[in-house]
Automatic annotation (TrEMBL), chain A:
It is found in: Cell membrane. This is Na(+)/H(+) antiporter subunit F. InterPro entries: MrpF/PhaF-like. GO terms for cellular component: plasma membrane. The chain crosses the membrane at residues 6-25, 34-54, 60-79. It is a multi-pass membrane protein. It comes from Domibacillus antri. It holds the Pfam family MrpF_PhaF. Its main location: membrane. Belongs to the CPA3 antiporters (TC 2.A.63) subunit F family. GO terms for molecular function: sodium:proton antiporter activity. Keywords: Antiport, Cell membrane, Ion transport, Membrane, Transmembrane, Transmembrane helix, Transport.
TrEMBL record, chain B:
It holds the Pfam family PhaG_MnhG_YufB. One of its GO terms (molecular function) is sodium:proton antiporter activity. The chain crosses the membrane at residues 40-61, 70-93. The keyword Magnesium does not apply. Keywords: Antiport, Membrane, Transmembrane, Transmembrane helix, Transport. InterPro entries: PhaG_MnhG_YufB. This is Na+/H+ antiporter subunit G. One of its GO terms (cellular component) is membrane. PANTHER family: ANTIPORTER SUBUNIT MNHG2-RELATED. It comes from Domibacillus antri. It is a multi-pass membrane protein.
Length: 94, 112
């Protein structure tokens, strides 16, 4: 029962990833593409978790936390670049 | 591996995958960037939290392995995903992305 559920959820997650790729390619504005990339990072964490259950190893659990942190930092950097034009500002009082 | 933990793991996995699929459909079908962000940042977060909880129960029931990294990952997603959604939405509004033309109310229009 649990093998079928694992494979089914992996297929469903792959379909969701394809839908997000559609929005990433087509999205009319830049924030659309950032939303799609952020959701793709979240989906990638789910795929890593399901894959660690299929392969029956607990060595991927560090990777889950790593992908989560990197996706968050990338999203914050893109949002700050869109809003202020630079990611790290040298003069904060302007 | 008892039957009860099997049933709980299967339910959590399928619910998480279904919520991720709902998030992807929302991102495809909704009309403007704010509603898409609404779909992606809520539904995908709950979906990945379900799947990580299922993984935690899987390793706890199979090996007796208490993975504190998975609990930390669940807490991290719960904290950071709404923050990331808020930052994208604010950057979109401040860089001048138009709302859907059928939306009726913009509270930030006169506030500069």
């Amino acid at each position: 029962m649990i093998d079928i559920a694992l494979k089914l959820s992996l297929i469903i997650l792959a379909i969701a990833m394809l839908g997000l790729v559609y929005r990433l390619v087509k999205g009319p504005t830049t924030p659309d593409r950032i939303v799609a990339l952020d959701a793709m990072g979240v989906n990638l964490v789910s795929i890593a978790a399901v894959l660690s259950m299929i392969l029956n190893t607990s060595n991927f659990l560090d990777i889950i936390l790593l992908i989560a942190i990197l996706a968050f930092i990338g999203t914050v950097a893109y949002a700050k670049f869109l809003e202020k034009g630079e990611v790290i500002e040298y003069d904060r009082n302007q | 591996m008892t039957v009860i933990s099997d049933i709980i793991i299967v339910f959590l996995l399928l619910a998480g995958a279904f919520l991720s699929l709902v998030a992807a459909f929302g991102v495809i079908r909704l009309p403007d960037v704010y509603t898409r962000n609404h779909a992606a940042s809520k539904s995908a977060t709950l979906g990945v939290m379900f799947i990580l909880l299922g993984t935690f129960i899987f390793f706890l029931a199979k090996d007796g392995f208490f993975s504190s990294r998975l609990l930390l990952g669940i807490a991290f997603f719960f904290i950071t995903a709404p923050v990331a959604g808020h930052l994208i939405s604010r950057a979109a509004y401040n860089s001048g992305v138009k709302m859907w033309d059928k939306s009726v109310r913009d509270d930030l229009k006169n506030k500069k």
